[in-house]
Amino acid sequence: MKKTLALILALVCILSLAACGNTAAAPEETKSAESAEASTAPAEPIHIQFGHDNLPGEPLTEATEFWAERLKEVSGGTMILDVYDSSSLGSKNDLLDQLLAGDAVMVVGDGGFATDYGVADMGITMGPYLFENWEQVDKLVNSDLWADLKSQMAEAGMTIVGDNWQYGARSTMATKELASPADFAGLKIRVPGNTVQVEGMEALGASPVTMGLSEVYSALQQGTINAVENPLSTLLANSFDEVCKYCVLDRHVYQIQFVVIGTEFFNTLTEEQQNWLIETGTEAGVYQNKLMQEAEANNIQALKDRGVTVTEADYAAYAEAAKSFYTDSKTSAAWSEGLYDRVLAIING
Q: The whole model's pTM is what?
């Protein structure tokens, strides 16, 4: 009996020790399981805020939405562009300040704004009557000079992730007829808030007024300004034909549009993520250009159908009238030596 009892007690002790051993191992097993789960959990997607000034339905707006879809698809949902149209994310200057501060922000820019943010040579791309067609623009964008300008942009804190976007040829609508360059004398014309475009219009003798595009319609109604310039798609999208019954197709700027992101933030991305962003941005640029060119073919007739008198400008006469921009402006004084001649050699070569 005593032997039996002793045997039972021994078995109980053995079982208790085994149970204690299992209990002691449980935290380590749980920790290992949690670590394995954490290592396989998907990372939070990278969100980039993308703001621009254009309205829904414009070629550029549709292209930014296309870009967002392609980037999400290519990255497997790990990179997301949160697109904001109609200046709803803030002004161009506000967004440039944010991306320079390191925020995950992209903005549609151009040479005019690049100049005011430290890359003076880029401003020549927004000079009046520099280009006569898109073929000349393409020559510049494919040149060594353009590669150098992009490097200057990155060094200034603005990395270009989409540089093949043809925004459109900028023409002028007014409340009075503009039959010749002389009619620009004293013209109160709205321009974007950058030095290059202000001085470009001043070279024609105009009195440029800077304001947000959303303010222009009421300003035209009230007579604060009497003209506005932009690509025809933008002029139509904003219904300026309701207050401006004259349009001169002066095409004073064939606008290279590029999309910039803060260099500081861009450098936090992996090489693969950077490539995804640039490659899909280039795709979106091709898509935008197709939409823009299709729209241009219809916009002139659309203006006429809306009761606007449309006239073709004497390009050579306007170019001659604005020539002082390339010799006597503060903008041109800041360019590197020989820049103007170098650009002319590229686009006319």
A: 0.83
